[in-house]
Design brief:
The chain is α/β, with parallel strands linked by helices. The protein folds into 3 domains: 81-121 and 130-302, Aldolase class I (TIM Barrel, Alpha-Beta Barrel); 312-398, PDZ domain (Pdz3 Domain, Roll), CATH 2.30.42; 405-528, Rossmann fold. It has 17 helices and 21 strands.
Length: 535
């Protein structure tokens, strides 16, 4: 894993230099220095000139300072996938996007090396290889890796995503042994014909379906998702949700499909917002028929307010046993009024972490009726029992993240400190409605001069509107267009940091650093930390 190509050698097992440009650009600098040296000197061995095709890092421990998790080692296990989905994001990536399929599988040596230098206390390890993240069980070393991960740490939660097609009973039994694990099995559809057409899954036996049934039988918790695409009908979505509900899926996500301008046909063209609204209407119509929580992603498109409303409850949890359900509004907890989602999340997490005996007295609003509930939180069952201590879903409440009020406070403080004229706040088309709502409701920017605009996703194009997929060039284009219309009006630019999260060096998906925005526009740029939609 510490061996890198000097030149572009085809079909080489060595690591392509492009796969570390985002996470460790110093490797690229070393390679460039070597190339420059090779222009003017010859390297020799036994008094004979030799060709240099690769280089290695000598002291690996000196490179193990990258913020990471033990699960990230498993996520990068394989860049290969045994499906060929119509909506696969890789098919829509621009040619210069650094998140590329590189046809690599992690060896046992690399697994051992990464685990050796992973610090479980600090959450630091060797920088990851940023390529396509695909089906981990396509790598025959998957179970070996998982067992070694559990040997490294007995209690760190292991998470991953799989399409489930390679999960047989033996593999699932092994997953049970290395608990705690909590992973997403992307089922997409239970119908063999739909899977064959949309996913190019030609198996007669649908292993993913059998896997879910068996996991429910042995009480191994999982979540799942359905990518809604015109080739997957609303009726098929309902049948898949029926199946997930029957098998006690922890959380089911209905993901609204979108495409970049690079995605090649054949696929059915569709007007994204008209199609999304049809899916959302159907999910809202049927979700109360199910015991499991059903979320729509991206939730920022669906929920444009900050009302302390729950999205659902997890099967087997206290909230489930007291019959709370999606769209219930939590008015108060233990006589403390709830004003926002983030306050609700914070309050529930704080109570769930308390070492004292917790009493949970709720006041909820359902269909305009106020209902008091005193909850006994001691009785829990599968699947909540297996994940309860990880506090992502305190007492079984599922509450979707939104823009945090603290983020608005951070923005206000930055403007007060650095702007004497007017600040330009740039967000995405997807997040602008919720941002406008929260600014208006909170009055947090009163007496401050600012503008809020949305940057267009020119880089990916198509129907992409997520801020996480903006690149530096999108921000630059947006700013220059604004300055053409309103010259010399702003002295500060505020942007979300999330498009640059992929690298601790704050680079976007093209490898451009965040600093290029300020350099090209001549106006100070301040990034603000915010919740990511795409992780």
């Amino acid at each position: 894993m510490d061996t890198y190509k000097i030149n572009n050698i085809s079909n080489s097992p060595l690591t392509d230099i492009k796969n570390v440009m985002l996470t460790e650009p110093r490797i690229v600098s070393i390679r460039n220095e070597l190339l420059a040296l090779m222009e003017i000197i010859n390297f020799e061995k036994n008094n004979e000139a030799i060709d240099i095709t690769y280089f290695r890092l000598r002291n690996i421990e000196q490179w193990a300072d990258y913020p990471t998790s033990i699960s990230e080692i498993f996520w990068s296990l394989s860049s290969l996938c045994n499906f060929n989905c119509e909506f696969c994001y890789e098919k829509g990536n621009p040619s210069d996007c650094l998140m590329k399929k590189t046809y690599r599988k992690m060896s046992k040596l690399e697994i051992d090396t990464r685990l050796k230098y992973y610090d479980t206390q600090k959450g630091l390890g060797i920088f990851p290889i940023r390529g396509a993240i695909n089906e981990p069980f396509h790598n025959k070393n998957a179970l070996y890796c998982l067992k070694k991960m559990r040997e490294k740490t007995s209690n760190e939660l292991i998470t991953f995503v799989t399409n489930g097609s390679l999960l047989d009973q033996k593999t699932i039994d092994e997953l049970k042994k290395i608990s705690p694990v909590f992973f997403n099995l992307s089922i997409y559809s239970c119908d063999p014909m739909v899977r064959k057409k949309v996913l190019k899954d030609n198996r007669k036996d649908i292993n993913a379906v059998k896997a879910i049934e068996y996991m429910n039988k042995i009480e191994l918790p999982y979540s799942s998702n359905i990518i809604m695409w015109p080739s997957i009908s609303l009726e098929d979505m309902r049948k898949t949700l029926d199946f997930l509900d029957k098998n006690k899926c922890t959380i089911a996500r209905v993901c609204l499909g979108a495409y970049s301008r690079y995605l090649k046909h054949p696929y059915q063209n569709f007007e994204i917002y008209k199609y999304w609204e049809n899916v959302i209407d159907e999910v809202n119509r049927i979700k109360k028929n199910y015991r499991i929580p059903i979320l729509i992603e991206p939730n920022s498109y669906v929920e444009k307010d900050n009302v302390p409303r729950i999205a659902g409850v997890i099967y087997g949890s206290p909230a489930f046993q007291y019959h709370l359900r999606s769209d219930d509004e939590i008015l108060a907890i233990n006589n403390v009024t709830m004003h926002s989602k983030m306050q609700l999340i914070s309050s529930l997490k704080k109570l769930s972490q308390s070492q004292k005996k917790v009493v949970l007295r709720l006041k909820i609003k359902r269909d305009n009726i106020i209902i008091p509930i005193d909850m006994d939180i001691s009785n829990i069952e599968y699947p909540y029992k297996q994940i309860s201590k990880y506090n992502d879903f305190p007492f079984g409440f599922v509450i979707t993240d939104t823009l945090k009020y603290k983020t608005l406070i951070d923005v206000r403080n930055i403007i007060k400190k650095y702007s004497k004229q007017k600040a330009l706040i740039i967000t995405s088309k997807l997040m602008k409605p919720i941002l406008n709502y929260m600014v208006e409701k909170s009055k947090v920017f009163n007496y401050i001069s600012y503008d809020i605009i949305a940057a267009k996703n020119n880089y990916f194009g198509g129907t992409i509107t997520a801020g996480d997929l903006l690149v530096a060039r999108d921000f630059i284009d947006c700013i220059k267009k604004y300055l053409d219309k309103y010259p010399n009006t702003i002295d500060l630019i505020i942007i979300p940091e999330s498009p640059f999260y992929i690298s601790q060096w704050k680079k976007d998906l093209r490898g451009e650093p965040i600093t290029v925005i300020e350099r090209e526009t001549g106006i100070p740029v301040k990034p603000v930390e915010c919740t990511r939609i795409i992780n």
